[in-house]
Amino acid sequence: QVQLVESGGGLVQAGGSLRLSCAASGGTFRRYSMGWFRQAPPGKEREFVAAITGSGMSTDYADSVKGRFTISRDNAKNTMYLQMNSLKPEDTAVYYCAADNNVVSLARSRYEYDYWGQGTQVTVSS
């Protein structure tokens, strides 16, 4: 059983940057591929943002964040990151990290992920 805890969210002006962290415990971190998802105000579907394989060698990004966000992981620290640059108001959402038992997966579907964090709020003001 893997426990995930996100941190690093907050309020930032458009054009600014934030770095989110996802700390994992209770499992062998390198054996999980990881993903970031986000969910805007209630009623909207939780959408894929980025994913990274267990080794960190492969990544995938949603078109809406490609070139602005960077996903990375430090397996020695059991932590995944999302560096978010050039933030836009439409990036405002609760951001969730998730773990997938398939170590080589870069799944975009939320249903492929087995464990989830509680989320961290990111608000971008215009």
Please give a structural write-up:
This protein has 126 residues and is mainly β. The chain is 0% helix and 48% strand. The chain is built from no helices and eleven strands. The strands form two sheets. Strands 2, 4, 5, 6, 9, 10 and 11 form a seven-stranded mixed β-sheet that branches. The chain has a four-stranded antiparallel β-sheet with strand order 1-3-8-7, with no helix packed on it. A hairpin with a 7-residue loop joins strand 4 and strand 5. It is globular.
Question: In brief, what are we looking at here?
Answer:
This protein is mainly β. It has strands spanning 3-7, 10-13, 18-25, 33-39, 47-52, 59-61, 69-74, 79-84, 93-100, 115-116, 120-125.
Structural class: mainly beta
Distance between the termini: 40 Å
Helix % is under 10%
Number of helices: 0
Rg of Cα set: 13 Å
What attributes does this structure have?
126 residues; mainly beta; seven-stranded mixed beta sheet; four-stranded antiparallel beta sheet; 0% helix; globular
Strand-helix topology:
Blueprint: E1 3-7, E2 10-13, E3 18-25, E4 33-39, E5 47-52, E6 59-61, E7 69-74, E8 79-84, E9 93-100, E10 115-116, E11 120-125
Parallel strand pairs: 2-11
Antiparallel strand pairs: 1-3, 3-8, 4-5, 4-9, 5-6, 7-8, 9-10, 9-11
